[in-house]
Specification:
Structural class of chain B: alpha+beta
CATH topology of chain B: OB fold (Dihydrolipoamide Acetyltransferase, E2P)
Largest sheet of chain A: 8 strands, antiparallel
Distance between the termini of chain B: 15 Å
CATH topology of the largest domain in chain A: D-amino Acid Aminotransferase, Chain A, domain 1
Largest sheet of chain B: 4 strands, antiparallel
Oligomer: heterodimer
Distance between the termini of chain A: 53 Å
Number of strands of chain A: 22
CATH architecture of the largest domain in chain A: 2-Layer Sandwich
Helix content of chain A: 25-40%
Order of helices and strands of chain B: HEEHEEEEEEEE
CATH class of chain B: Mainly Beta
Helix content of chain B: 10-25%
CATH class of the largest domain in chain A: Alpha Beta
Number of helices of chain A: 15
Shape of chain B: elongated
CATH superfamily of chain B: RNA polymerase II/Efflux pump adaptor protein, barrel-sandwich hybrid domain
Strand order of the largest sheet of chain B: 3-10-8-5
Number of domains of chain B: 1
CATH architecture of chain B: Beta Barrel
Chain lengths: 454, 151
């Protein structure tokens, strides 16, 4: 087992990793930028090293600084968290060459996960259903039109090197397709430095269902059930739940099996997520796979009782999976609400500032993952996620009631937040009966605007 | 008061068992402050010698001690290992009381096996080196105290 781990991240996930280290008796080393000196995880970690100025490019994304810090702190492994360098194959490669264990899958798997087109091809080869689309990169709008005519409108143009909902443009007809194609290319270039795009069928009213997988270095793979991540705004997740209301045991078994096959197809080890799109008729398609721990991992932890971060550490240290698929049970229901320092009445613009009041909820079935406390200054340099409020109940109804109670108890002053929007979603009839799809939030926001209600 | 007298005053103050000294004579005002736990060593502040990778408070203490003569401080531009000279058996780039020109190499910080020569961001007279040879340093950590020189 590692005697020390360097956490190459910040915010709530860095604190999450420090907590796992504490429980495992592993020395935690937090690297941070000048903007994060007072951050909770920096104070809580066993040691901390300032690695650069506030800008991510000079700190959290600056590989030489992180590796240099790892060397002077003499750590055995680095946990990259999510975002930043978590899916950077080059970083994983450098760790490998410096004899530092990168807590995540192998370099080649990270590379494949980042290549959406190649990943689709591998899945197709292994008989896993993928969303209908182009075989590879589409280099001209004529080609895009060809594909669209073959698979049928509507379609979505996606960045091959993309992720996080960026570099994606929908098109419902020939005219909008040409525009969408060039816009997507430009966005892809700006966001990922690679203008390669591909075309996929846009499945209207689809549901985004993802499966958590764990694999050891000895060929054993299990899945920890699904997460429903359909509540999104501009492809950014706002709320997640486990399990999904759309899956019956039969479908869960089939999708779980496909998830494991997908993991094996790419020789996956450590923690990862296989994302599927589920259409209205109950057909599922592989979308992409992610080689990092996900923001919404807590809902899976709550219903399975498995600590995913600890498992990541164990698996990276070469240990075998301590359980088989049969040992994994989904118990109860969990709903996670993400709270952002964003103003929903102002185009969701991120709002840095100082938190003057921070009352977090508590009581039965409530878990809070946050790095924020009263007096904390939300920096402008990073993503505006403040906290995750996770409710668990014996069934969805109880989880929902607890989530509503928790969000009502939450008081955050000093910056505008998305708390009120989340409450609206939780109280919505359609959400309560589980009748949701990917356009849910947008339609809710439109209703609000047209009715003029606050 | 000229700079050599100032240097003498600082040296005297460092050795003395007082924490604060204020000198106000004929328009020249000087205030010196220090933390009592500082030893009177001319270089290598013992607090700065503690690894930044080990337990808390070392950064704040370094900042306090570097502040004590309230002279400008050169901070580390990167994370790595600090070396005072280009090789083990070679004299240091700069020693206390040396004049340092802006752009002059004052130390090496090793990061990922690369020896980075660090240039002085300003000119002045070196008062104190705050880090021991071979010690790890973090970004922004105070390395040298300089005394600005009147042109």
């Amino acid at each position: 087992m590692f005697n020390s781990i360097l956490i190459a991240n910040r915010g709530e996930i860095a604190l999450r990793i420090v907590r796992a280290c504490k429980e495992m008796g592993i020395r935690s080393v937090a690297v941070h930028s000048e903007a994060d000196f007072e951050s909770l995880h920096v104070q809580y970690a066993d040691a901390d090293i300032c690695i650069g100025s506030a800008h991510s490019s000079e700190s959290y994304l600056h590989i030489p600084s992180i590796i240099s810090a790892a060397e002077i702190a003499d750590v055995a492994a680095i946990h990259p968290g999510y975002g930043f360098l978590a899916e950077n194959a080059r970083f994983a490669e450098i760790c490998r060459s410096c004899n530092i264990v990168f807590i995540g899958p192998a370099v080649e798997v990270i590379q494949l996960a980042g290549n959406k087109i190649e990943a689709r091809r591998v899945m197709r080869e292994h008989g896993i259903p993928v969303v209908p689309g182009s075989d590879g990169i589409v280099s001209s709008s004529e080609e895009a039109l060809d594909v669209a005519h073959k698979i049928g409108f509507p379609v979505i143009i996606k960045a091959a090197a993309g992720g996080g909902g960026r570099g994606m443009r929908a098109a419902h007809n020939d005219a909008s397709l040409v525009n969408a194609f060039t816009t997507a290319q430009t966005e892809a270039e700006a966001a990922f430095g690679d203008r390669s795009v591909y075309v996929e069928k846009l499945i209207d009213n689809g549901r985004h269902v993802e499966f958590q997988i764990l694999g050891d270095k000895h060929g054993n793979v299990v899945h920890l059930g699904e997460r429903e991540c359909t509540i999104q705004r501009r492809y950014q997740k706002l709320m997640e739940e486990a399990p999904s209301t759309a899956l019956d045991p039969k479908l869960r078994k089939a999708m779980g099996k496909a998830a494991i096959e997908a993991a094996r197809a790419v020789n996956y080890d450590n923690a990862g997520t296989i994302e599927f799109l589920l259409d209205e008729r109950g057909k599922f398609y592989f979308l992409e796979f992610n080689s990092r721990i996900q923001v919404e991992h807590p809902v899976t932890e709550e219903v399975t009782g498995i600590d995913i971060v600890k498992e990541q550490i164990r698996l990276a240290a070469g240990e075998r999976l301590g359980f088989t698929q049969r040992d994994i049970n989904i118990n109860g229901w969990s709903i996670e609400c993400r709270i952002f320092a964003e103003d929903p009445d102002n185009g969701f613009c991120p709002c840095p500032g100082q938190i003057t009041q921070f009352n977090v909820p508590g009581g039965p079935g409530i878990r809070i993952d946050t790095h924020v406390c009263e007096g904390y200054t939300v920096p402008s340099y990073y993503d505006p996620l403040l906290a995750k409020v996770i409710a668990w109940g014996r069934n969805r109804d109880e989880a929902l009631k607890r989530a509503v109670r928790a969000m009502e108890e939450t008081v955050i002053e000093g910056v505008p937040t998305t708390v009120s929007l989340t409450l609206r979603i939780l109280r919505d009839r359609r959400f309560q009966v589980g009748n949701i799809n990917t356009s849910f939030v947008e339609s809710l926001l439109l209703t609000k605007r047209s009715s003029g209600r606050m | 008061m000229d700079t050599s007298e100032l240097r003498d005053l600082i040296k005297m103050f460092e050795q003395a068992a007082i924490t604060e000294l204020e000198y106000d004579v004929e328009g020249v005002k000087i205030r010196l402050k220090k933390d009592m736990s500082q030893t009177p060593a001319a270089d290598a502040n013992p607090k700065a010698a503690s690894q930044p990778a080990s337990e808390k408070a070392s950064v704040e203490e370094q900042e306090r001690s570097a502040e004590s003569p309230e002279l400008p401080v050169i901070e580390s531009p990167m994370v790595g290992v600090f070396y005072r000279s280009s090789a083990p058996d070679v004299p240091p780039f700069v020693e206390p009381s040396d004049y340092v020109a802006e752009g002059q190499t004052i130390c090496i910080i090793e990061a990922m096996k690369i020896m980075n020569e660090i240039p002085a961001p300003m000119s002045g007279k070196l008062v104190q080196t705050l880090v021991g040879n071979g010690e790890p340093v973090e970004f922004g950590q105070p390395l040298f105290v300089l005394e600005p020189v009147q042109v």
